[in-house]
Amino acid sequence: xxxxxxxxxxxFASAGTRTGKLGVVRADGSAHVTPIWFVxxxxxxxxxxxxxxxxxxxxxxxxRRDPRVSLTVDxxxxxxxxxxxxxxxRLSEEPAELLRWAAAIAARYMGEDNAEAFGKRNAVxxxxxxxxxxxxxxxxxxxxx
Length: 145
Known about the structure:
single chain, 145 residues, alpha+beta, Pnp Oxidase, Chain A, 8-stranded antiparallel beta sheet, 4 helices, 8 strands, 30% helix, globular
């Protein structure tokens, strides 16, 4: 087992169509974990996790109340690796930004040919663009070695 470097965990989290497992806190204090599609944005403001969610979903309601999130991305094949992010989310409903990122997420998971159609499907009123600024990373590679 070894710690991943920043470049390694960024590449690992962005590889292929690995989903993230997102954790938020419900109003009653219980945990809610769900798989999500996401991309990383490594802009000048720091590393961010970018994903969409409906405003009235469990995630959407939880993030309005408490912006803290945890996201885990793992490789379920030997030698097994994972990255766990702690982040603070901010929500946007700005149409152009929502469409841009919804299409980028769709390109990752559905392919470039379907990116525009899926992006338009997800960039609609009632959807949030979530930009979660990463505050902590735990990244372990080769757990079974």
